[in-house]
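## retry 2 of 3
previous attempt timed out at serialization; input unchanged, resubmitting
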Amino acid sequence: MWFGAGLAVVAFLALLPVVLERLRTTIGPAQRRGAEGGFAQLSQGVTHYRWVGPVRGPVAVLIHGLASPQIAMEGLAEALGNMGYRVLTYDLYGRGLSDAPLGRQSRAFFLQQLSELLAEQQVEEEITFVGYSMGGAIATAFAAENPHRINRVILVASAGVVTNESRFSWFCRVVPLLGDWWHGMFVRRRIMQAIPLDFDNPYIQRVLAAQREELARRGYLPAILSSRRGMLAGSSQKDHRKLAREDVPVIAIWAENDQIIPIKALGVLAQWNRAARQEVVSGADHALPYTHAEQLINALRTALRN
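## retry succeeded, writing output
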């Protein structure tokens, strides 16, 4: 009897992350009703997108990071729109109001989403890409595979160069099955604890609220782990060296106090691409697109003038 009860407890604990995931909300028409922007039905699922800025002008495509949806790029999108860019932002699969399809969120996975969205939106001219964190690695990969389509690449605290990975994230990423269970059980609490509560700025508060809402949607936490095992598992060195050979203009902006993408990434990128223009936002950490939006925009303007 005790043996059977023990097996039942083990089975319950083993299945608990699955049960918790099933209890979360699925994104569908009800959640998307009234949302700004549009929804593109692509081969892997629905992608939520939004255009900002003038009807005509050079196109800029903004790609957000691992954990925050496109709202984290809203301040930068509006600033680029004021500079005359037609700005396209979108939610990566598993984030925001986009679908969360199954499968490894690898380089090919994200490049397929991006390529299909550009085709669906009939974007054919040269593009300025702005990628933040994991979005920087995606932008770099797309530019390396399609240099003829690129005006310039702007990287904000970009992944793919140097990353400080916690022991928790490393364990979940490299250990099959047990890593999945550990991630499903404990990552939600870790993310929630990392979201600050003490910002007065309304825009920052909206971004933080969106981050908390993500934790209640089905597919979000598995997407985080899948991206760590896929898109974030490798280096962007080959892509950066190709951009250097192809003379694709690259601007990289780093945060002085970033604990996730440390400032030493600046020196590493300089070795890979000596032509890259680099700037540092003083006092900022990894959340700089929304906590230090004004300083980031000023750094971007400085880089674009040179």
